[in-house]
Amino acid sequence: MTQSSYSSGRIFKEKRTPLGAEILRFARRIRGFTQAESAANYGIEERTLRRWENKEYSPKWNDVVGLVEDVYSLDIIEVIGKLNDCDTNNH
């Protein structure tokens, strides 16, 4: 089979992986934290978190997972799934 025959018969729509900034902002809002509260609980400066969420700097994956799981007490895989569901419903 050729590449085109695989792509034409796809059952599932491909979803893009959300950026760390999108994951952080979404998780923070779900839990009702401010940027200041989140940063203080994770031990970083508020401006660092603000820059991550505003896509001025890209957070390292371990920081994304750390904030989501340790500070917000959420499962990173579930957050990504919910974020993708929201994107799908809005398009």
Please describe the structure with a list of short key phrases separated by commas or semicolons.
91 residues, Transciptional regulator, mainly alpha, 434 Repressor (Amino-terminal Domain), single chain, disordered N terminus, Cro/C1-type_HTH, globular
Short description:
This is Transciptional regulator. With 91 residues, the chain is an all-alpha fold. The chain has six helices and no strands.
Structure description:
This protein is mainly alpha-helical and 91 residues long. The chain has a single domain, classed as Orthogonal Bundle (434 Repressor (Amino-terminal Domain)), CATH 1.10.260. The protein is 66% helix and 0% strand. It contains six helices and no strands. α3 packs across α4. 21% of the residues are buried. Mean pLDDT is 87; it is low at 1-6. InterPro entries: Cro/C1-type_HTH, Lambda_DNA-bd_dom_sf. It comes from Pseudoalteromonas luteoviolacea S4054.
**If helices are DSSP runs of H or I spanning 4 or more residues, what is the number of helices?**
6
List the quaternary state of the chains: single chain
The count of domains is 1
CATH class: Mainly Alpha
Radius of gyration: 16 Å
Structural class assignment: mainly alpha
Reported by name, the CATH topology is 434 Repressor (Amino-terminal Domain)
The coarse silhouette is globular
What amount of the residues lies in strands? under 5%
CATH architecture: Orthogonal Bundle
How many strands?
Answer: 0
**Termini Cα gap:** 32 Å
Helix content: 55-70%
- What are the segments in which pLDDT stays under 50 over at least 5 consecutive residues? 1-6
Q: Secondary-structure element order, as H and E?
A: HHHHHH
Q: Sheet bearing the most strands, described?
A: none
What do the pLDDT scores average to? 87
